[in-house]
Every structure is written in C-alpha cells, then in structure tokens.
Amino acid sequence: MQFFGRNGLLVLFALPAAAQTVGTSPADKLLADGHYRRAEPVVRAALGRTPNDAHYLSDLSIVDWAFNRLDNAIADSERAVAADQGSAEAHAHLADAIGSKLVSSTAGTFEKLSLAHRFRKEIDRTLELDPNDVDALQDLAQFYWNAPGMVGGDRTKARQTADKLFTISPFRAASARTDFLNDGGGVS
Fold first, then answer.
1. What is the mean pLDDT of the chain?
2. Cα 128–174–6 angle (5° rounding)?
C-alpha cells in the first residue's frame, strides 16, 4: 500500500508531517529539509524547556519515525495529542505514526486490525479539526482504497474522497487517483 506523505514524496504509507506546517523554529526548518539527525538534539533541548509542548512532541515523533522507532513515534504523538486535544497537527502526526506501523512487517494480523481502527479514528479527528487537510484527505482516500472491507475499506468512498480532495488540491487528487490506477483498480 503506497501513500503520499506530508512532504509530497511517494512512500510506503506516510512520511513525517514536517513540511506541511513549517514553523519558525530552527527545528522546523531542519525537519522540513529532512535533516532529522541534526534536528533531534534541537527538538530534545526545546522539550527540556517546555516538556508538554504539543508542537515539539510532534516534532520528536517525526524524528522517531525517520529512524524507524515507530513505537516511540506513536508514544510521542500520543503525548502531543494529550497536550493539545484540539491540534489537527498532533492528530495528523499520530495518524502518520500509526499508519507507518500498520504497514510495517513487524505488526501481526490482530495488531494491524487494531492499528487500522486507530489510524481511521485519528484521520477522522484530524479532518474534524481541519476539514481541508490535504494530507489527511489523501491518506483517507488511500486507506479506503487499500484497506479490507472489514476495517472500513471501500473503493467507492476512496473515489469520493479523491473527488473532495480535487476541490482543494487537484495535483494531490491526481496523485491519489494515479495510485488507484497503479493498483489495477481503475478510477471513474
């Protein structure tokens, strides 16, 4: 299952969401440019000063994701969500971390079912907080397309979500539709 991540590159499920919300801190710039190793001490220092800052906890989850520390990425994202329940960014990062673990080879069948439900819950919450989140819409379309029906997959809903995405970002909708074509399912 292939997904476009938050910085627009074709990847397996999700990339860190750094590029979507580039802030003004040095860590934000480093993450947006993909300098995860250099960003980590900057993020940890910022968390040393403000340990419950949702933005820096999300940044730490990006760093953990980049180094394939998926359980840590999920834990950091959960802390970010706990610190700011109303942050679409925090929920989006949690969805990305869960999605990455969902497609990892280390997750068993029952764990994948649980992760799929958690992923869907976090994507829904992200879209509740920010209905025009392009990345969340694209991830949702991909989820609908690739997930089995027993966890909510539905190719008709995937097409409908891609159509909604088209009104916001025609390029990203075309990317999602191309993934549908590459999967052999075609689009209408």
1. 84
2. 50
